[in-house]
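Case study.
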Amino acid sequence: MLITLFIPCFVDLISPKAGISIMNILEKLGHEIDYPEELGCCGQPPFNAGYWDEAREAARPVLKRLRDAEAVVIASGSCGVMLKVFYKELFHGQSEEAEAAALSNKCWEFTDFLVNKLGVTDLGAEFPHKVTYHDGCHGLRELNLKKPARQLLEKVRGLELVEMKEAETCCGFGGTFATKFPMISTAMGEVKCASARDTTAEYMVSADSSCLMHLQGLLTAQKQPLKTIHLAEILTSRS
Amino acid sequence: MSAKTEFLHEATRLTNDLVHRERIHTGMWKYYDARTRSQGFFQDWQQARILASQTKKGAISVLHEHLIEFEKNATARGTVVHWAKDSEEARKIIFGILERRQVKRIIKSKVMTSEEIHLNDHLEKAGYHVLENDLGEFIQQLRNEPPYHFVAPCMHLSMQEISDLFENKLKAAPTDDPEELTMIARRFLRQTYLTADAGITGANFIIAETGMLSITENEGNARLTGALPKTMISLVGIEKVLPKMADLALFLPMLATAGTGQPITCYNTAYAGPRQPGEIDGPEEWHVVLLDNHRTALLADAEQRDALHCIRCGACLNVCPIFKNIGGISYGTTYQGPIGSVITPHLRGLQDWKHLSASSSLCGACTATCPVKIDLHHHLLQNRRNAVKERPDPLESFAWRLFAKSINKPAVYQIGTKLAKLAQPLHKLISATPLDPMRAWTKTRTAPAMAPQSFKDWWRSRNIPHHPTSQTTPFPLTSPTHAPTAPKRPITATTSRDLILARVEEALSDTHPQPFEATATQKRAVLPAVTDLIPQFAANAEFLRAEFFLCADESAAKAKLAELAVSHGWKKLATHRGELTDALVRSSGFSPLLDTTEGYDANELEACDAGITECDALIAQTGSVFLTARSGGGRALSVLPPHHVVIARRDQLLPDLPAGYELIQQRYGAAWPSLTTLITGPSRTGDIERIIILGAHGPKKLTVVMF
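After joint prediction, the assembly is written out as follows.
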């Protein structure tokens, strides 16, 4: 299959390892990758801020570039939802309405694609550590993806998954929310980290780099030993 | 201070208060556990949500018709229906009633609509003596503070704080026993029921078909408020409509489950008018004030119309991570949490309250939990969009335009990332200092470091030929098509009634589909079928702490009552005349026995140890007792004495709530008693640290004797 890989801006600049891991996994599974290098962002930041005209302007090149794709895999639950769910809303009543709907049908969040489209759960990975999983809200509640990440982690050799009490609670990132209301965002992050710490896990894993960026920032600032890691990096780990 | 400044100030203060945060989180986890258990009461909770949201949607889509039907049916039974277009008119109507009835002392059961119109302040300023009688509201009134949470008004207080408050305001002895604290309030408030001239209530549902108001509660304070004062006033939002009485069979257990995690609340009372001919108690006059107060503006927004489906269960607050960290006071609104953030901009102005829609991570926990499937977090997004469309912030607008133009232009993106990389070492020098432009992030979080090699760099370094990029041609710019529509023509109406009805009709003329609408699935039974009636009734009643005795025959039941009289040390009993009470109570020679059939003195009834009543039916599904003002000997007999004893025959036991409502409707038809109540367990409260205490205002004990 020719897979078009959408790499969000923060994965590109801050956590490229996650993107590289995803690409390696897909290639290893025998798929050809098309990476639209010219795309930087799905347009979610202005969309969430209420600036929908601007969001549309940012989103149009994405919509156009992905028009002929066979399947689009997005390396983030949050941006995945933007392409799969919110484009339809953003372009509702616009000339691109049908195009947004067509794109939605072929967009896949990365874990969803592996487990539910390709039917793959065992990637031969080995990661002998105790981990806990943070559900990114967009993947969990907009796309209903509670299971795929866990199905993938289950098959990782040596890995012990311990669920935290607040697994489904928002980490407090929320895009510009994190800087517009830093005190609330921080408090939410603290609740999350405390819950992860209670499991005595070494790593907090997620399929969303944006959540991890916020959580790692908090953990580093508080000099806590708990580490964050993207799920894809675990799936490409070998001992 | 603007609402936003105040919000930021309070949110900062409360997120830094770790004790407060911990208390709210602990309380909410208790709720979550109870709720998860209660959801198991439903055959299929998700189907129940769909059914409820469809019912509400159907009701709201012909709201004007339902309101007219309600008015007609309520008026036919002697209820006076008023229409208030806004706060001022609602207050004017209420003041008019109070003056005409020469009221001095007022008791209020929990009425959120009255918080909305700031009724207490105005009443007090006008010299009325007003007392809140829901335990949580009473505590907040003593603290001179608005409710912290619209379902759990004082959930932020510790037992110690409440003890200090009672010591200070009521001169009570300090205690660390939640039961004793509840009893202090009970004793204090008891007398006020007997001396109040008027009672003010809200309502959870308006039943169009029967002209009834349905009030859900646990403590019994609303029942006492509706039983004893001579004048009763109910202030209700126009959106509370349910088409049929039978709809309660779904909404009552749903409200309890989502609201407090109970299978059903203690008292679910349907009021149908003031005291009816032949009844012994209840108010001489009952006034229902239907309140618009910008609800029609929300109705006119077709995208967010479903926010009017809200049953005010508070579930969205309970799961909201924002609420759990900033607490209820920060919002500065009558309705807190996600639903408050959605509707307040419609009720009190978008520009002044848009910050509440912005202060959300859009996590969607609210939408996932809402029992009537309101698309809450998407409405927050829509509020943000509407606020920008109405009045864009010049600086932000410029920044987003720049962002939109450059982010997907490779050349600009590349220059931008290079500059950011160059700036990074410089930023490290000032990080988290007041000079840092990223201080909002770096004050508590380390700034993310840019990777030495970006994904794009890595991709290029692999040197694999990739697919050619398509040419980008600019698309025509079009504006959003679904912002709320403005009224199309000016409405001319002479009375508030006609004005509100015209507003409703006008609002409903916009039928724009809701963009995030859930797909409806087939209706089917949402509550499990009941097969084994007696054991299920026994189990459900006992779960909610009612006492249940199954007797072999009439004489065994009579003996059981005599035994109860001895074991409970009853000195004085009250009952009404009826087939079963005559056979089991009056013939037993209990003395003294207060017979309420022809009327009673409230003080005398209050002094009785137990009230013995008949009922219309027992419900196995919920372990409840269905009684009316007729079968239960009036409004007060079953709620004023500290022990309520119900006697029933075996054939009165019905499987479920739909069967109960069917029976009641068949039995009374158009001649409704003024009160129909579903009683499940003794009166209770969880207002103090969510610890369940029995006997908040109503009976501490409920005993069912069946033969």
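Observations recorded in class. Chain A has a mean pLDDT of 96. The two ends of chain A are 29 Å apart (CA to CA). We will return to this complex in the next lecture.
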